[in-house]
Amino acid sequence: MEQRTDIIGFYQGLRPIERITVSQWADKYRFLSPVSSAEPGRYRTSRTPYLRAIMDSLSVHDTHKKIVFVKAAQIGGTEAGTNFLGYCMHIAPSPTMFVQPTDEMVKRLSKGRIDPLIEMCPELQQRVAPSKSRDSNNTITQKSFSGGVLILAGANSAAGLRSVPIRNLVLDEVDAYPQDLDGEGSPIDLAMARTRTFPNHKVFMLSTPTIDGSSAIDREFKETDQNYYHVPCPVCGTMQPLVFANLKWEEGDPDSVKYQCAHCGELIAERHKIDMLANGQWVPSKPERVSPDVIGFHLNSLYSPYGWHSWRQIVRDFLVAKDNQSKLKVFVNTTLGETWAERGEAPPYKNLYNRRERYRIGQVPVDVCFLTAGVDVQRDRLELEIVGWCADKRSYSIDYRVLEGETAATKVWERLADVLSERWPRKDGTELPIRLMAIDTGYNTTHVYTFCRRYSADRVVPIKGQDHLGMAVAPPKSVDVTKSGKKVGKLRLWNVGVSFLKGELYAALRLERDENNVPPPNYCHFPQYDEHYFRGLTAEEQVKRIVRGYPKFQWVKRYERNEPLDCRIYARAAAVIVGLDRLSPERLAAIGGAVTSSKREARNSAISKYDRDYNDFWD
């Protein structure tokens, strides 16, 4: 029996390669698993016809060596990459690599997409070694098959990208890759270097774009002929790309949305999109750059098949995001498939100084729901800002303080404990405590940890700034607290995206009141501070520099004392942890901890059971 199998394998090897494109292979051999797809069953390119040309450019008989795909969400881009892998294992066997941003994403890809791809395709089952616990030919990160191997690697591991020569390479979500990997340069360059020994190599690069000027996929796309998918108007027949600006709806009614033809002006219902997509075609916007080696495609979510991401859902998402810079950024990236232009230059401090308001320092306006504090630690002082937050994310600076004293001693920390125990009067007669205090751990880290351990995690949190974190706050991680080299406990440390929050703050500082003098959401209110505060608040600006041949945005000081800026973003991080961005106005009002002045609690430091440990530490 074994001899017969060898003979069959020998004659299969003599058969010529089936002349078939990637899309034809997918339609003929691919079946979607209910584990990985909302529409299980036979794969149909006709469901996403715009992917046909992209997949076919990956075919072994096509001349293109590099295919760049700038994509939005909900358009089937990852399935195109998965089809390419199946095609490589079946039709064009050779060393193949699929790179994801992290090792954790590699595991999800392997179990959620690659394993179902093989299990649902008999042709691949015959070629890929069965998955066995002791069989190194089929693991989470490597799938051996007749004539080649599939390697799954994370872009955060230089060792994984320095493996064997690769003929077929898929670089997925490249904008989430680190810009420099362990001092060895870009992981994109490291991976692409593996393809040099194959003159007929294929590189499929796809991603949702991120920040304008630093987006890797946008940079690659601009070097191509920049193809956009044009579809015919069902009324006048004129070909045109679908753009968000042409979605029209009645105010307050996303369900009324229709697409307005850019030529005849007729309003098109979404039910026509099926025929429009089926009759569409890719058109290069830069025909002078058409090349047999490199091709680029761009697609937004307006093309998402009927029943996936609808036009009315896109409108709803926009209405939710339009007044929130963080959400709008996500909308622009993931729905429009466009880069987000950060406005990182510092707003003129004089403008902020001149629009100061008349509320008293230390008094809380009536529309404030809760207070947070951000603390910056220096060698000889603590600087902190108490900020009041409203339900629409407007903010009031309540007080800014500098606590003089060596932060390696106890006295200044006791003064900070006194601040935490204070209550601030609101105009309606209630008093608010500091709901959450966030303290930076960048200096005198051990002393910060010791202070934080005196309180519960819902009163005081240690934070660590991460410049490249693409969000306001990441989930906390447990860290060890040591005394004299011995572990004495643990704390939850919160990583904070300082660059992200600085960009958000500067956008908020540029907001202006409307013609009725009404402040918009995210507006920042300030009392009668001196000029030094506002110069410190706008002390940095974002500049673009070339690092290892790639553009990189960095925050640069234009004024030496930037502590007000740091304290403000730390207070904002605390507000994120409390729930400002996710809770309803009713919930926000309830979490402020307000008490009536007639029932004022006796002042106390609310020191937890860790107080004795704190005093013992310094003794």
User: Fraction of residues in helices?
Assistant: 25-40%
The averaged pLDDT comes out at 86
**CATH-defined topology of the largest domain:** Nucleotidyltransferase, domain 5
Proportion in β-strands: 25-35%
Shape: globular
Helix/strand class: alpha/beta
Computed Rg = 29 Å
Level-1 CATH class name of the largest domain: Alpha Beta
Low-pLDDT stretches: 1-11, 594-619
Roughly how many Å apart are the termini?
80 Å
CATH architecture of the largest domain: 2-Layer Sandwich
Describe the structure.
By secondary structure, this protein is an alpha/beta fold. It folds into two domains: 246 residues, P-loop containing nucleotide triphosphate hydrolases (Rossmann fold, 3-Layer(aba) Sandwich); 251 residues, Nucleotidyltransferase, domain 5. 29% of the residues lie in helices and 25% in strands. It contains 20 helices and 27 strands. The strands form five sheets. Strands 3, 4, 5, 6, 7, 8, 9, 10, 14 and 15 form a ten-stranded mixed sheet that branches. A hairpin with a 2-residue loop joins β25 and β26. The N terminus and C terminus are likely disordered.
